[in-house]
Amino acid sequence: MDKKTSFRVNNRTETIYGFLSIGLGSISFAIFLWAVYQSAYNLSGREIFIGVIELVAMMLCFAGLTLGFIGETREDKLKISAHLGIALNIIIGIFHVLVIWHAF
């Protein structure tokens, strides 16, 4: 018996949807920070461009949230990454909604 597998409790692996959810949440947060920076130092008057950046970041966040929920439904997989992805995307989504809410 191989030493690497002799101490394993089960053969389940993490779901790829959880990792994709974490990745999309991280990209969404990075774009959010870039949009906030562009808004704070808006010297050229590009408000529409900043709004489009924020909407793209919000769509990525909701796509990550959807992938997290898909990762939750997979049978015989570990769901820790899906839990983290859902939590990250919910927190980032709250920031996006607050920015969009206060912008209008």
From TrEMBL:
It comes from Petrocella atlantisensis. This is Uncharacterized protein. The chain crosses the membrane at residues 16-36, 48-70, 82-103. Keywords: Membrane, Transmembrane, Transmembrane helix. The keyword Transmembrane applies.
